[in-house]
Amino acid sequence: MSDTASFPVPQEWDVEPDPLAVPAARRLVVDIARCWRVPLSDDALRDVELCTSELLANAMEHRKARCKVTVRWTGIRLRVEVADTRLRLPNPDSAQDTVTGGRGLMLVAGLSHSWGWEPVGAGKVVWFETAADQLVTGDARLAVLVHAAQARADPLVQTA
User: Fold this and answer.
1) For residue 28, which phi and psi values (nearest 5 degrees)?
2) On the chain, which terminus has fewer CB atoms closer than 10 Å, C or N?
């Protein structure tokens, strides 16, 4: 028997540039996590679903091209990556001050353990990680959601 841990093979697939593809892709991320028996609560999985939606929506809105989703389990964190061919870097501080959008990265930053981006080839990968023991709950979760909602509704609200 080996002394090394065995983790599931990362799952990767393309998502077409169609807003109707986002719900299926985010549900697939959650289904993969459940299949792998990742120790995340239903609340944490809802946050994974929301963060996945935000990354996919950003990739599709700005690039209008196919993107690639990768899901990995490290044994400590669930990592979701969305790769696209757009060179512009994600910046939560440059969000458009509109009611209907522009604050998704604030949610990702607030609800995930960590997030970031990496240059890859002619584009980038934007990712977030959720750790089983780092779930944002209670007042902290409410504060993230309220802040994002207020920022969407009030163009004078600035992100920190």
Assistant:
1) -65, -40
2) N
Among residues 52, 141, 43, 62, the alpha carbon closest in space to that of 101 is found at: 62
Separation of alpha carbons 21 and 94, rounded Å: 26
DSSP state of 98: -
Q: Global pTM?
A: 0.77
Instruction: Kindly give the pairing relationship between strand 11-15 and strand 77-84.
Output: unpaired
Cα 114 to Cα 89: distance, rounded to the nearest angstrom: 17
CA atoms of 118 and 124, how far apart (whole Å)? 6
**Has residue 134 got a pLDDT over 60?**
no
Cα angle value 112/113/114 (rounded, 5°) = 90
Are the C-beta atoms of residues 128 and 156 closer than 8 Å to each other? no
Taking Cα atoms as reference points, which of 87, 145, 79 lies closest to residue 114? 79
Determine the pLDDT at residue 3: 58
Contacts of 101 (CB under 8 A, 6+ apart): 57, 61, 152
Helix (H, G, I), strand (E, B) or coil at 51: helix
